[in-house]
Amino acid sequence: MNLKIALFGIAREIVGQSTLEVSAPEGQSAQGLLHDLHARYPELARLTSLAVAVNNEYAADDTLLQERDEIALIPPVSGG
Amino acid sequence: MINIDLTDQPIDVPAALRSVEADGAGAINTFIGTVRNKSTGRPVVRLEYEAYDSMALHQLHKVAEQAAEQWPMVENITVVHRKGTLHIGDVAVVVAVSTPHRAESFAACQYIIDTLKQVVTIWKKEFYEDGDVWVAAHP
């Protein structure tokens, strides 16, 4: 399946674009996606934290991703 | 009532305060976050705030709802966060809470700003005379 991932802040700068399309096996988990992205973009692994959001909620490691989900990478937030 | 806004325009602070007025409120507590001229001793020229808008709005609502559950006497909550380019002294965020008595308004206001900083999908980049840094990105 193809996943479309929105990127923000330093994650957007590391990848060099604001959305990323990746092909992933059916049943890919949030943690599995991060593992793949860390391999492709080692700079992402150096961040203090990196979360996956699915449909505007923080996803647990074992959350299964689906093609229709709105997926985003969330580097450390710094609002306020 | 809960009012949440994310804006690229200067925040109207008096309007945010008026928005939480209530006849049953004996206290309005406000937190105003402003842009400081230094960060860890380094002079800051400007900040840029970027947001994942839909998730930031959703999470801000959740944080305000959690505060209203924890302090059920809360009358009104308003949270307004700025995005885009900000300069020294600009208002980045306003949290306003009205309650019958003061203790709960202080507590709820602090809970909201502290939790916002932990979960709301907004990112701040600090610009110095000789470079820039995404705040909190690296250990």
Automatic annotation (TrEMBL), chain A:
> Under the GO molecular function aspect, what terms does this record hold?
nucleotide binding
Q: According to its record, what are the GO cellular component terms?
A: molybdopterin adenylyltransferase complex
Instruction: Name the domain of life.
Output: Bacteria
Pfam family of this protein, just one?
ThiS
Record keywords: Molybdenum cofactor biosynthesis, Nucleotide-binding
| BP GO terms, sorted | Mo-molybdopterin cofactor biosynthetic process
Q: Is Nucleotide-binding one of the keywords? A: yes
The pathway noted for it is: Cofactor biosynthesis; molybdopterin biosynthesis
Q: Which PANTHER family match?
A: MOLYBDOPTERIN SYNTHASE SULFUR CARRIER SUBUNIT
NCBIfam families (alphabetical): moaD
**Similarity annotation:** Belongs to the MoaD family.
Q: What is this protein called?
A: Molybdopterin synthase sulfur carrier subunit
Name its species. Hymenobacter perfusus
Name of the encoding gene: moaD
UniProtKB/TrEMBL annotation, chain B:
Under catalytic activity, the entry for this protein gives:
2 [molybdopterin-synthase sulfur-carrier protein]-C-terminal-Gly-aminoethanethioate + cyclic pyranopterin phosphate + H2O = molybdopterin + 2 [molybdopterin-synthase sulfur-carrier protein]-C-terminal Gly-Gly + 2 H(+)
Which molecular-function annotation in GO is an example for this chain?
molybdopterin synthase activity
Give a GO biological-process term: Mo-molybdopterin cofactor biosynthetic process
Keywords for the protein's UniProt record, in alphabetical order: Molybdenum cofactor biosynthesis
Keyword Methyltransferase included in the entry's annotation: no
Q: Does the keyword ATP-binding apply?
A: no
Which Pfam families did the record assign?
MoaE
Q: How does it assemble?
A: Heterotetramer of 2 MoaD subunits and 2 MoaE subunits. Also stable as homodimer. The enzyme changes between these two forms during catalysis.
What family does the database annotate?
Answer: Belongs to the MoaE family.
> What is the name of this protein?
Molybdopterin synthase catalytic subunit
